[in-house]
Design a protein that fits this description.
mainly alpha, about 75% helix, 5 helices
């Protein structure tokens, strides 16, 4: 009869390959996880600081719309912030998906179905946030010009795209496609494992 020797307290039962993997990519995974959190917090702080400052609004949107927005009212600031906060919530979901994806990588779940789903969520939340951000720009421009008298042509609907909008969308669609490839590969690997 073979007796199992108990593992001493504090001894590692971790797979040595997982330890090697963490040694090679651990710093990258931790860095990306931290960057996702810092980015989400930085964006919400920047939004609050921008929409809480009439001078900043006038310099930013006033220059874009070619209007003096120094008379913008507090409710307009709050409404414009609220629109951008809704977009931020979706971007924050993309950041959370990034955090979960790289947590999986730290746990050695590189080419797994679960990791492919988190990568897909990251891409999809990012695409939705980017498209919504583009689509809400005209709404924000209207909100910030509502203090002007009606019928004088001072209220503006500004529709614009920036080159980086398209670059970001291309990158995010690439992540969605990569997630589909990884999901398919994980499914094929799972089917092969059943036959072995």
């Amino acid at each position: 009869m073979i007796e199992a020797t108990p593992t001493p307290v504090g001894a590692s039962t971790e797979n040595p390959q997982l330890g090697e993997l963490r040694g090679r990519i651990g710093w990258i995974c931790q860095g990306v996880r931290l960057a996702a959190i810092v980015y989400a917090l930085w964006v919400i702080y920047a939004l609050a600081a921008f929409y809480g400052n009439v001078e900043a609004i006038n310099k930013g949107y006033g220059r874009l719309l070619q209007k003096d927005l120094s008379g913008v009212l507090a409710w307009q600031q709050a409404a414009a912030f609220s629109v951008n906060f809704a977009v931020w919530l979706i971007a924050a979901a993309a950041c959370y998906s990034t955090w979960r994806l790289f947590t999986n990588y730290l746990e050695g779940k590189i080419f797994t179905f679960d990791s492919a789903l988190w990568l897909r969520r990251l891409g999809l939340y990012g695409v939705v946030a980017q498209l919504l951000g583009i689509a809400t720009r005209p709404l924000v421009s209207v909100i910030l010009t509502l203090h002007f008298p009606a019928g004088e042509g001072q209220r503006i609907v500004s529709v614009f795209l920036q080159p980086d909008d398209l670059a970001i969308l291309l990158l995010l669609f690439g992540l969605v496609a990569l997630a589909h490839v990884q999901k398919t590969a994980a499914e094929i690997a799972g089917e092969h494992a059943q036959f072995v």
